[in-house]
Amino acid sequence: MEKNQIDLTRLVATSVDSSSRISFREILAKLFFRFKIFLLCTLTVPLIALYLVHLVPYNYKSTAKLLIRYDTKGLPYFAELATSKRQIISGQSDAEIIRSLPVTMSVVKELSLKDSDIAKPAYKILFSHFAKPFYRFLKNDNSSNSQDEKTRIEHLAKELKESIDSKVVQKWRPEIEISDEVIEVEVKSPDRNKVRQIANKLCDGFINEYYRLCEAEAEQAYNYLTRQMLKLEEELRKAQVRDDISVDAAGKGLITENPPGLDWSDRNINTNPVVDTTAKQVTTLELELERVKHIYKPGSPELVRVEKELQEARQRLKRHKSLESASALLNIFKDKRHKAYMTMQIFKNRLIPISVVERAVTPRKSRLVFIVRYVLVGVIGLVLGSVIGFSLVMFLSAMDHRLCRPWDVEKEASCPVIGSIPIIRRNEVDLANIDQLPLEEASPTVMQTLGRLDLVNKGKGQLVVVTGVSRYEGKTFLTLQLACALADDKRTKVLLIDGNFQNPSLGTLLGHRTDRGLVDALKQNVPVKDVIFPTSIKNLEIIPAGYTKERQSLGFYKKSLKELIMSVRDEYDGIFLDTAGVLTSTDPALFASEADQLIMVLRSETTRREPYVKALDVLAQVGVACFGVILNFRRYRIPKIFYGD
């Protein structure tokens, strides 16, 4: 029988178009093949999301409003202070005071707040849940209870500060120089009842803190002006006693600091009669000096006298101006000090109207909010889980080089896939009755393979070699089923040859434990008829492997193999030869060179692409074409109808 003409390039080379193009069917197949991973991600992600949402409690909101009325009627001292300076000495605005640490600490103490009463960011809540087992290792047992309580309150106050949102709404009043301030305070808390109390307590704490800070500012200004006034009075007293003050006393010796809000132009010193008279004397002497310069020569006694009188007059003028300036500044300090004292008393007695114009109320508890919250998170988690699952399946499929499906095999080479055999439990197979073979699960693939081989009515028996890539791919049992299926037709005669010298198990399966076999026929020229043994099926005979320990000394026996095959061709309709894996031995290539058809068995989800392509390359080098591939031990994770093979 003529051998099949093959195209070696077609066998080994893969199709670029088929490998680079991914069809919708292949994507669905990948999803179906790893649907457990896809289903796991699709269900796990929303469940995790819902669990995390359950750990993060819902935060209720409550709002209160404060009004600071800058009504200056009857309070001129406060009006001047408020107009010149809008922020108190701490540098905080009114909206920042309500979120300051002293205010929040007072709220924590008064309401005895716990960590669960304060709204925190989700990542902090989740971290605290997952870090609870490690808290006992981080706890400092040497610290006292008072220090622990103080640290706890300070920590809760900082957490409460982050949950407060305050803003100032300005209301312009044209009849006064400054506007009233409406401070809106919004607080979040997981406790629906506590959130109202927190908001109202924040308003009360703000009022107390505001008065305290403003009183401290006025007291600081009062103390500063008092020190400057006493210092200036001491300098004036010394100047009057010695009646001699330096020219630069007012600028260098009297004032060491420039207090805020002082106006140096409050007094006009030229209105003083003494200063005015001295100034007129200086003017008269300057005119007299100019007249004398035209009459007398330089250095004359008259000219010297006028210059001396002019110099003394100027010194007296400067001395009078310095004393008058210091006196005027002292009066300004006294006036400012009095105003600062009045301002301090105003804040101390709480005469500035600050009131809560809108008290916080308990927010409503809506079930719809919770339903929407969980449903929304569940839907988002479901979509995200599907995307993650799909991406993971695509990634694993791209990184997985195993041959799992028929299109995986056909994509690597143009060798067609004859069929697939599912996983069969070998412990349920009764090999004593081989007439029951092939098994029900393998029968469709076996019959389809025999139909494509078309072994009947060919005139003489064809040699079909069954091989694989490596070991444990089910070649031997498949070869036995092919032979039994063909021998089921009483008109055909089948010969089974065990050429797997590495693991000669075909003879053992059929109960032949003789040492004579194929090795003896090839090496020692034992007649073929002496190594052919019958089986329980009348028209099925077998040639065992023989004494395989002598195989190493077989040498080159291609001629002997060819003669053996030629001698039995006319007596059998089909000859099946089971051999080892192509990559584990050189025997399969030798047997394949004499074969009429070659069938390769691949173990699904175990055999990888690279060894498979390499095995085809080895066969192509000896001029052998692969008739077809059978996927063995294939898992059908979903109904076979979806696979489309």
Q: Your description of this structure?
A:
- With 645 residues, the chain is of the alpha/beta class.
- Among the domains are: 28-54 and 369-399, no CATH class; 245-346, no CATH class; 403-426 and 434-637, P-loop containing nucleotide triphosphate hydrolases (Rossmann fold), CATH 3.40.50.
- Helix content is 52%, strand content 12%.
- The protein has helices at 8-12, 16-20, 24-33, 35-55, 76-84, 94-97, 101-111, 122-130, 132-138, 145-162, 194-242, 249-254, 273-295, 301-348, 367-399, 406-412, 443-453, 475-487, 506-509, 518-523, 528-531, 558-569, 587-593, 609-621, and strands at 60-68, 164-171, 180-189, 354-358, 417-422, 462-468, 494-499, 533-534, 540-543, 574-581, 597-603, 628-634.
- The chain has an eight-stranded mixed beta sheet, sandwiched between helices. The protein has a four-stranded antiparallel beta sheet with strand order 2-3-1-4.
- A hairpin with a 5-residue loop joins strand 8 and strand 9 (540-543).
- Helix 13 packs antiparallel against helix 14 (301-348) and helix 17 packs across helix 18 (475-487).
- The longest helix has 49 residues, at 194-242.
- It is elongated and about 165 Å long.
- The model is unreliable at 1-20, 83-89 and 243-270 (pLDDT under 50).
